[in-house]
């Protein structure tokens, strides 16, 4: 941490040029517990304070890496240039919390938390709710070092990352890299596999970033279908030897009902649905079960009611064939399923005959060549 209290009760911030010898002669204390702090003046990390050994504090203070300390320092300096009146590491006594920086942006008070270490879900939730309780907007920023890109526009996103995404009003992930001095903004995140998601990506150098735009402006929707079709292409050419239980159930069901090998799953079960993030199951799993239900009705020339498709989705969730990423309302689940059906209508696979009642407009299956199937993937998902 950079903040401490001096012997005469004044707040002191360890930023900027300091004379090391003078610092070593002074005594500093924790603003929270009052315990004496050691001044760390090594070469690997920025100068900072740390509790002396065996001293407990009422706030759980995570060890701060050099990466974290430098990132926090840069964010604080940046917020000063934004005229956001930032306060470094203020102690909020009513909730016993100490955000990295507090700032006022567009008449809103924000608690900016720069998180580089793993944080338990209950701790993350407690901190988030604590700020909200005080009328403060929690603004989580992840350390860029915690992000792994797996392909163009695709990132490995675990439950740790989804905490940040779900806490964001725009379902986005904002990262910061002190080495590159840039923000990375992932938005319109669409899962392909459980921990592998497509995202629109925006890189913003900190000297060009506006705090109001970064924190209070919703990114424009966009998707590069070329990246999505490449992910489908990789799926079709990879061996599927180690499947989850839900994936294996779907594989067997497609073979039983459609005599379809797993690599030949129809294009219609790979639809990039924005609201599909509610599903933890891979995109082809949750859509695959719904596709089989709809095409079974279509083969019988029976109408396909949206309410029946939604009910079928709930049934598969109950049977653990489809897994949810987080608890959600029926409205949220309904939006995901509706976006999927709307896309199938847009592409002519389904046709709406009356409100939320559909018929199958194209025969299911029928493609037996991998090359033809890949071409269909490309033609279905065009920019």
UniProtKB/TrEMBL annotation:
Ranges for domain Competence protein CoiA nuclease-like: 64-218
> Where is the Competence protein CoiA C-terminal domain positioned along the sequence?
223-374
Using the record's annotation, list all stretches that form the Competence protein CoiA-like N-terminal domain: 18-59
**Superkingdom of source:** Bacteria
InterPro entries in the cross-refs: CoiA-like_N (IPR057253), CoiA_C (IPR057252), CoiA_nuc (IPR010330), Competence-induced_CoiA (IPR021176)
Give the protein name, as stated in the record: Competence protein CoiA
> What does the organism's lineage look like at the top?
Bacteria, Bacillati, Bacillota, Bacilli, Bacillales
Per the record, the gene is coiA
């Amino acid at each position: 941490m950079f903040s401490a209290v001096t012997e005469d009760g004044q707040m002191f911030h360890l930023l900027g040029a300091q004379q090391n010898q003078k610092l070593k002669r002074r005594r500093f204390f924790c603003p929270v517990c009052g315990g004496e702090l050691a001044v760390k003046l090594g070469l690997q990390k920025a100068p900072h304070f740390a509790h002396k050994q065996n001293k407990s504090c009422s706030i759980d203070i995570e060890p701060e890496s050099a990466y974290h300390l430098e990132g926090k320092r840069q964010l604080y300096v940046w917020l000063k240039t934004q005229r956001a009146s930032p306060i470094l590491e203020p102690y909020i006594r009513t909730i016993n919390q100490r955000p990295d920086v507090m700032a006022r942006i567009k008449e809103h008070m924000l608690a900016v938390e720069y998180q580089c270490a793993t944080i338990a879900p209950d701790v993350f939730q407690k901190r988030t709710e604590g700020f909200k309780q005080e009328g403060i907007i929690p603004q989580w920023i992840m350390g860029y070092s915690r992000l792994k890109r797996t392909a163009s526009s695709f990132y490995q996103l675990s439950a740790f990352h989804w905490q940040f995404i779900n806490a964001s009003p725009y379902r986005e992930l904002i990262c910061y890299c002190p080495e590159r001095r840039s923000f990375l903004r992932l938005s319109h995140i669409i899962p392909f596999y459980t921990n592998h998601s497509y995202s629109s990506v925006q890189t913003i150098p900190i000297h060009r970033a506006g705090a109001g735009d970064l924190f209070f402006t919703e990114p424009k929707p966009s998707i590069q279908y070329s990246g999505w079709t490449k992910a489908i292409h990789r799926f079709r050419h990879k061996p599927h030897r180690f499947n989850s239980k839900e994936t294996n159930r779907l594989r067997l069901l497609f073979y039983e009902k459609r005599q379809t090998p797993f690599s030949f799953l129809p294009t219609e079960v790979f639809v990039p649905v924005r609201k599909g993030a509610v599903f933890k199951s891979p995109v082809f799993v949750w859509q695959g079960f719904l596709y089989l239900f709809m095409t079974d009705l279509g083969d019988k020339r029976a109408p396909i009611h949206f309410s029946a498709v939604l009910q079928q989705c709930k049934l598969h969730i109950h049977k653990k064939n489809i897994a949810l990423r987080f608890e959600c309302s029926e409205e949220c689940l309904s939006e995901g399923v509706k976006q999927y059906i709307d896309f199938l209508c847009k592409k002519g696979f389904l046709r709406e005959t009356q409100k939320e009642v559909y018929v199958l407009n194209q025969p299911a299956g029928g493609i037996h060549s991998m090359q033809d199937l890949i071409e269909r993937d490309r033609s279905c998902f065009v920019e």
